[in-house]
Amino acid sequence: MNEDNIIVQKSKSFSLKIITLYKFLVDEKKEYVLSKQILKSGTSIGANIKEAIRGQSKADFYAKMNISLKEASETEYWLELLKESNYIPSEVFREAYS
Question: What is the DSSP string of the chain?
Fold first, then answer.
């Protein structure tokens, strides 16, 4: 079921982009605070989607999906901060943001 679910696929792909970005920030920029924040929120999106799929009820499903949405919004904020503070160039921002 999960292999055919486009939301699961896209959230996992996004998580992998975030992990790559985290490695770049730590290894190349020596940035450890913002990078940890974006790693946590960016990978949490997919984790909550996977949890939602196995939800015990519709209410549980909606609650987990709403958490994913909140994590996505938080990740968007961290990406914007990283770009506007020049930790990441515009092309890195666009790659993660798209």
Answer: -GGG-HHHHHHHHHHHHHHHHHHHHHHTS---HHHHHHHHHHHHHHHHHHHHHT-SSHHHHHHHHHHHHHHHHHHHHHHHHHHHTTSS-HHHHHHHH-
Structure tokens at 77: 């904020």
Q: Please, which residues have CB within 8 angstroms of residue 67's CB and are 6 or more apart in sequence? A: 44, 48
Provide the residue-wise pLDDT of the chain in tens; the chain has 98 residues: 566 899 999 999 999 999 999 999 999 999 999 999 999 999 999 999 999 999 999 999 999 999 999 999 999 999 999 999 999 999 999 999 87
Residue 55 CA: distances (Å) to CA of 2, 60, 63, 72: 14, 5, 9, 20
User: What is this structure's pTM?
Assistant: 0.92
